[in-house]
Amino acid sequence: MCIFLTILTGCFPVFNWQGSDENKTGEGKSMLKDIAYRNKTQDSDSYTVYIQEKGAFEPFLVLSSDYEGGILLLRKFLLEDLISYSDSKSYGSKGGYYPKSNIDYYLNNNYILQFSQTLQNKILDTNVSVSTLESVEGEVV
After folding, report:
1. CB–CB of 130/98 below 8 Å?
2. Helix/strand/coil percent split, the chain, to 5
3. How confident is the model over 1-18, as pLDDT tens digits?
4. Pfam families given for it (predicted)?
């Protein structure tokens, strides 16, 4: 399963589009930090933002308004691209190590290009806690 998490600066305006075409024009602009999940108790649409990917708007869930100084987003639907986790390596041969996976490479080098340059510039580098390479050695028990 491919999950894409995006970290954006909190002052970045996005369209809080809830399905009507007129809101895509900019009238419904909101600040991400104002619609983050932790600030809402309503239904999931209250913390859904739409971000343009390759010309089409895709829904992202706002998970946190304060994640390492930015906004944490989760793409609501899986990507249609089929990508192997690792080329010919099994879990037992260290194929389960995320920093060397095809998914990590794809998200950081290919998928990010689907966003406008302005949005790419707003995506923050963040630390992802990953076990050491040695922790993925051996057979799955």
Report:
1. yes
2. 30, 25, 45
3. 334 445 554 444 444 334
4. DUF6273 (PF19789)
- For Cα atoms 129, 97, 68, give the angle at the middle one, nearest 5 degrees: 20
Q: How far apart are the C-alpha atoms of 70 and 81, rounded to whole Å?
A: 27
- Domain extents for the chain? 5-133
27: left (phi over 0), alpha (psi -120 to 50) or beta: alpha
Helices (H) and strands (E) in the chain, counts: 2, 6
Q: How far apart are CA 97 and CA 23, in angstroms?
A: 42
The answer to whether the CB of 71 falls within 8 A of the CB of 96 is no
Query: What's the pTM value of the predicted model, to 2 decimals?
Result: 0.60
Rg (CA), the chain: 17
Q: Is the dihedral of CA 117, 118, 120, 121 positive or negative?
A: positive
Least confident window among 28-42, 73-87, 103-117, 119-133: 28-42
Classify residue 4 by its DSSP letter.
-
